[in-house]
Amino acid sequence: MRSIFNVAAVLLGLTSTLVTASPVARSSFPNDGFPNPSADQLKGIEQKALGTLPNGNPPNNISADGLINLRLIALNELFEVAYFNDLLNNVTNNVMGYEFKNKKNRDFVIKSLTAVLAQEELHAVNANNALKHFNTDQIQPCKYTFPVSDFQSAIRLAGTFTSLVLGTLQEVIEIFAAKGDAPLTTGVASVVGQEGEQEGWYRLIQGKVPSELPFLTTSTREFAFNALLQTVIVPGSCPNLKAINLTTFGGPLKLLTNVEAKTEPIRFSFEKPSYGYDKFKLAYINQQNVPIVEDIKVKSTDGSTVTIEANFPYDANEMNGLTIAALVKSAGPFKNAQAVADATAFGPALIIIN
Questions:
Q1: Do residues 253 and 327 touch, judged by C-beta distance below 8 A?
Q2: Peptide bond preceding 183: is omega within 30 degrees of 0, i.e. cis?
Q3: What is the mean pLDDT of residues 145-150?
Q4: How far apart are CA 111 and CA 118, in angstroms?
Q5: Model-level pTM?
Q6: Residue 11: its pLDDT value, please?
Q7: If we measure between CA atoms, which residue out of 124, 325, 294, 300 comes closest to residue 219?
Q8: Percent of the chain with pLDDT strictly greater than 70
Q9: What are the φ and ψ backbone dihedral angles of 311, each rounded to 5 degrees?
């Protein structure tokens, strides 16, 4: 990843200063009334976002699965507001690791992040307003840790979770349509386009081709939910997390290998479960293709940490873009990403190539 960071520095005129810092728990939001802005505050957010909240009337009814969709969207958008608020503040205040040599580039990044932040605020408000409309509790903010220490790593993480969001919203739209909530699909589809525009910018900053794949990798609500829990949400800090009725996996699947665009064995680790894991397999979800299942080899057990190795079959499958890896309890075969999620013991691990 060092070469990607260097490309970003050239593109944006970043200083070479990097800083290593331990993640700090945060739940900071913009000083504009979010997540419950007044009418005047909302107008100010809309001006920064370059557009408004939808003003059409939501449908009168929604399915139980549709409510889960809205709750997960709200949970994710609240995190994104905190994340981009923190990133914008770091760039604006020239925090070490977030400085720019070129003022014009810095001003453009601040302008862009200001719009992104306000747009994410509107996404969150819209999801929680919909929950309120359907007479159910709105999702409350959590506290977060952001495992980044400079602009380059912050953009890389933003690109990673945006790729996962783009995959998850595919399933959200499908569930809305299948459960009779079709009127809600249009708004989500509009957000897919907006998130895709963001993702192209994050990729360009990293020196990558802006458009990641011809058909973006699909995901599931469970993978997005667990990625948030394992990566950025402080355990026990969410007031009403239990309202989101999604499965919590056994724990993280940590990627140990710097994966390249080639077929090779790669390593992961996970916390040894109380039950046997000798029949576990590794499943890969990439693009719109049928999930791939690979055998695993246990390489070591150090205390409670198990290290495994599995083949990454890049060449035979052109596995560019986002790949979701999961340690599953059966050999499959799995017909789709949801079948993998249903069988997942540990995960997800997120791999991005190109």
A1: yes
A2: no
A3: 94
A4: 11
A5: 0.93
A6: 44
A7: 325
A8: 92
A9: -75, 140
Domain boundaries, the chain: 2-243, 254-353
CATH number belonging to domain 254-353: 2.60.40
233 pLDDT exceeds 50? yes
**C-alpha span between 268 and 323 (Å, rounded):** 14
Q: Sheet harboring 292-294: ordered strands across?
A: 292-294, 281-286, 321-328, 344-353
Single-letter amino acid code for the residue at 311: N
Distance CA 79, CA 73 (A): 10
Alpha-carbon span 308 to 353, nearest angstrom: 21
> How does pLDDT run across 67-108, given as a tens digit for each residue?
999 999 999 999 999 999 999 999 999 999 999 999 999 999
Query: How far is the C-alpha of 259 from the C-alpha of 322, rounded, in Å?
Result: 12
pLDDT band with cut points at 50, 70 and 90 for residue 4: very low
CB 251 within 8 A of CB 230: yes
Q: Are 126 and 76 in contact (CB under 8 A)?
A: no
* Cβ proximity of 244 and 137 under 8 Å: no
Span 160-169, average pLDDT: 98
Question: Given a cut of 90, is residue 57 above it in pLDDT?
Answer: no
Q: Give the span between the Cα atoms of 295 and 278, in whole angstroms.
A: 10
Beta bridge mates, 327: 282, 346
